[in-house]
């Protein structure tokens, strides 16, 4: 039978199928962080069950960490406790932890691919919805809740009903200045925030084939914002090249054998999907969101649609926008380039390239938060930091930061923030904050101008 | 986990669509290392004004509405995977959430905590909204065994779906860990076969 990429990886990991019920799915790698793991460790301890495969777990501290003075003790007592608890739990159970300050520390979805932990054909889970990021490697990767974290601790497996399959194809060539972030914001704006519920999504077509691994990760990262549990892109030469030489990647003959296997993973010609969508790359433009869910996106030059739905009206009221108006020239005082969506080296290169020789507007506070220690070092080594410093941007230390504002990096009440993160929910970046999602290029341009501008004018 | 069979209760209405888990429990309350006590911060930023006083316009502060059932707009529980959202809803006292759509991860989290997500049709949801708005004392009956949700006085009902394995778990109060640990042999055999 002809199989999809998703089928191939999923089916190979099925340990057992319960009659009229879920399947037992084997998990190759389990990533954990400080926020969603403590209750799972406690659950196991209370039930007297040991962690079954500690060597298949990797831990990092990211959600709740400060992005300045990481060498000092954390001021907030609760945050400090949570990080201590993670250290204690990892030590007790023999789990490798990259704690704050470690050279491998970073946002879980940035550091794992970077270290070569993420590989094609694997199943990967993490107590975080953006685990879909790892699907960029042709991996079945998805977010889980804390009860499931405990299940994987206890059995290295999960009980799941196999999701349905969905394919989004984008063929053609992207226009100048249209980044992977715009592609995924466009897809979500077209399909809505629950089009993917119950599905695993494969992205196919020229656009994804020609994308870098960083770009593919940006796309897969936001699969969850259209409701899909995960997103996947078939592994190819770009994937193999990215993995080769990374710390935990196989090497030599082992790698050769793996690559042979990985080459068998792409969807068979003629395999069927439960649902399919197709878009034309030429129709995609730099995007921006105007509401309080990631599906409320428009091309930067478009006007906010007229929509009388009660929830949409509430959302616009929260954002302080009117139906039918343009976002161009709206003053913006905060810009955040970071999060597991757009905090990889390529994102900072795009930003630096635009910023070089320019000055940020006086009204803007611009935070640049790398996704990992390695990205941070690279920013410095490539001289990007000098460009940012000269332009008045603030390069901070790695972590989730203002993406979810669990630490002190909060956007104040009522303020707009053009952000490269993935969620524009009410209060996501701080109580009363108003988030506008965009690509790193649009974010950089906003910081320079102090307002939203039509970036396409400068590009053509 | 607590057993669940049938629930008869009045309901709380939250008509908003796309209620995400950041609204159910904002990130700043996720610093705890245990599962208890999240109920006080349920819907925190809708429930309280900036100065800490209760927001009179929010349904949880409206004494007309109460009960163990939350009836909410389409696509409930989207966004972050935080199970704290399910813990907060349970801790507050909800046992059933009714909506016309649930985000995947939230649905799983709820079921793992004995909180029953009941997915109804858009039409039935509209009727529920209307009946409860007309009379906040309207009783809703959720029968897990027959998989039927009904509006008592109106003699209206609808069947809902649930995975039969999950249903057994809820009715008996088992959870997935019990099941998986009992199947350890199979899992180890699978591992052995993989490394060959
Ligand atoms: S950067 Fe944001 S979305 Fe990504 S893992 Fe951290 S909190 Fe979640």
TrEMBL record, chain A:
One of its GO terms (biological process) is L-leucine biosynthetic process. It catalyses: (2R,3S)-3-isopropylmalate = (2S)-2-isopropylmalate. Its EC number is 4.2.1.33. It comes from the Bacteria. InterPro entries: 3-IsopropMal_deHydase_lsu (IPR004430), Acnase/IPM_dHydase_lsu_aba_1/3 (IPR015931), Acoase/IPM_deHydtase_lsu_aba (IPR001030), Aconitase_4Fe-4S_BS (IPR018136), Aconitase_4Fe-4S_dom (IPR036008), IPM_dehydratase_rel_enz (IPR050067), IPMI_cat (IPR033941). GO terms for molecular function: 3-isopropylmalate dehydratase activity; 4 iron, 4 sulfur cluster binding; metal ion binding. Pathway: Amino-acid biosynthesis; L-leucine biosynthesis; L-leucine from 3-methyl-2-oxobutanoate: step 2/4. Its cofactor is [4Fe-4S] cluster. Binds 1 [4Fe-4S] cluster per subunit. CDD domains: IPMI. Belongs to the aconitase/IPM isomerase family. LeuC type 1 subfamily. This is 3-isopropylmalate dehydratase large subunit. It comes from Ulvibacter antarcticus. The lineage of its organism: Bacteria, Pseudomonadati, Bacteroidota, Flavobacteriia, Flavobacteriales.
UniProtKB/TrEMBL annotation, chain B:
Heterodimer of LeuC and LeuD. Pathway: Amino-acid biosynthesis; L-leucine biosynthesis; L-leucine from 3-methyl-2-oxobutanoate: step 2/4. Transmembrane segments: none annotated. Its EC number is 4.2.1.33. InterPro entries: 3-IsopropMal_deHydase_ssu, Aconitase/3IPM_dehydase_swvl, AconitaseA/IPMdHydase_ssu_swvl, IPMI_Swivel, LeuD. Residues 1-122 form the Aconitase A/isopropylmalate dehydratase small subunit swivel domain. Catalyzes the isomerization between 2-isopropylmalate and 3-isopropylmalate, via the formation of 2-isopropylmaleate. GO terms for molecular function: 3-isopropylmalate dehydratase activity. Belongs to the LeuD family. LeuD type 1 subfamily. It catalyses: (2R,3S)-3-isopropylmalate = (2S)-2-isopropylmalate. It comes from the Bacteria. This is 3-isopropylmalate dehydratase small subunit. It comes from Ulvibacter antarcticus. HAMAP family: LeuD_type1 (MF_01031).
């Amino acid at each position: 039978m002809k199989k999809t990429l998703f089928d191939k990886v999923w089916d190979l990991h099925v340990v057992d199928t319960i009659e009229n019920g879920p399947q037992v799915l084997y998990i190759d790698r389990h990533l954990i962080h400080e926020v969603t793991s403590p209750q799972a460790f406690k659950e196991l301890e209370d039930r007297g069950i040991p962690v079954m495969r500690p060597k298949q777990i990797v831990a990092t501290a990211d959600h709740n960490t400060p992005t300045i003075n990481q060498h000092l003790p954390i001021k907030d007592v609760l945050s400090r406790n949570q990080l201590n608890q993670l250290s204690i739990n990892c030590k007790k159970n023999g789990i490798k932890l990259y704690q704050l300050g470690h050279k491998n520390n970073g946002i879980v979805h940035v550091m794992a691919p970077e270290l070569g932990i993420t590989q094609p054909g694997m199943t990967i889970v993490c107590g975080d919805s953006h685990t879909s990021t790892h699907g960029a490697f042709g991996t079945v990767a998805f977010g889980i809740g804390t009860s499931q974290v405990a299940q994987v601790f206890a059995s290295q497996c999960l009980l799941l009903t196999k999701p349905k399959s969905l394919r989004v194809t984008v063929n053609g060539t992207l226009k100048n200045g249209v980044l992977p972030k715009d592609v995924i914001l466009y897809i979500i704006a077209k399909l809505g925030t629950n089009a993917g519920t119950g599905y695993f999504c494969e992205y196919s077509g020229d656009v994804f084939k020609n994308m870098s691994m960083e770009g593919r990760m940006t796309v897969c990262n936001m699969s969850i914002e259209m409701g899909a549990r995960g997103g996947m892109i078939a592994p190819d030469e770009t994937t193999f090249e990215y993995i080769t030489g990374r710390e935990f990647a196989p090497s030599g003959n082992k790698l050769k054998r793996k690559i042979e296997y990985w080459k068998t993973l792409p969807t068979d010609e003629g395999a069927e999907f439960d649902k399919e969508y197709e878009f034309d790359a030429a129709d995609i433009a730099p995007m921006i969101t105007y509401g309080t869910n990631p599906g409320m996106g428009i091309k930067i030059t478009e006007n906010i649609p007229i929509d009388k739905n009660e929830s949409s009206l509430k959302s616009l009221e929260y954002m302080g926008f009117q139906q039918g108006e343009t976002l161009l020239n709206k003053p913006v005082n905060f810009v955040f380039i970071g999060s597991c969506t757009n905090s990889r080296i390529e994102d900072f290169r795009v930003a630096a390239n635009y910023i070089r020789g320019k000055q940020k507007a006086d009204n803007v506070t611009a935070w640049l938060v790398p996704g990992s220690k390695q990205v941070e070092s690279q920013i410095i080594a490539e001289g990007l930091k000098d460009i940012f410093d000269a332009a008045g941007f603030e390069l901070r230390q790695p972590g989730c930061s203002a993406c979810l504002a669990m630490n002190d990096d909060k956007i104040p009440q009522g303020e707009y923030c053009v952000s490269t993160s993935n969620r524009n929910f009410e209060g996501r970046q701080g109580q009363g904050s108003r988030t506008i999602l965009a690509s790193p290029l649009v974010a950089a341009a906003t910081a320079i101008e102090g307002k939203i501008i039509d970036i396409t004018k400068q590009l053509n | 986990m607590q057993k669940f069979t049938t629930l008869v209760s009045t309901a709380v209405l939250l008509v908003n669509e796309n209620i995400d888990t950041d609204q159910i429990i904002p990130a700043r309350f996720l610093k705890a290392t245990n599962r208890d006590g999240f109920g006080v911060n349920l819907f925190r930023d809708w429930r309280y004004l900036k100065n800490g006083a209760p927001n009179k316009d929010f349904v949880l502060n409206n004494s007309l509405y109460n009960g163990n059932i939350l009836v909410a707009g389409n696509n409930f529980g989207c966004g972050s995977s935080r199970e704290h959202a399910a813990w907060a809803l349970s801790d507050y006292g909800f046992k059933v959430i009714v909506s016309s759509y649930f985000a995947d991860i939230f649905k799983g989290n709820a079921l793992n905590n004995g909180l029953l997500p009941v997915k109804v049709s858009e039409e039935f949801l509209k009727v529920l909204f209307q009946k409860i708005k007309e009379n906040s004392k309207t009783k809703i009956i959720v029968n897990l065994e027959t998989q039927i949700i009904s509006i008592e006085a109106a003699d209206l009902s609808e069947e809902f779906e649930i995975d039969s394995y999950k249903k057994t778990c809820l009715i008996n109060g088992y959870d997935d860990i019990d099941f998986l640990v009992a199947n350890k042999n199979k899992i180890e055999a699978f591992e052995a076969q993989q490394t060959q």
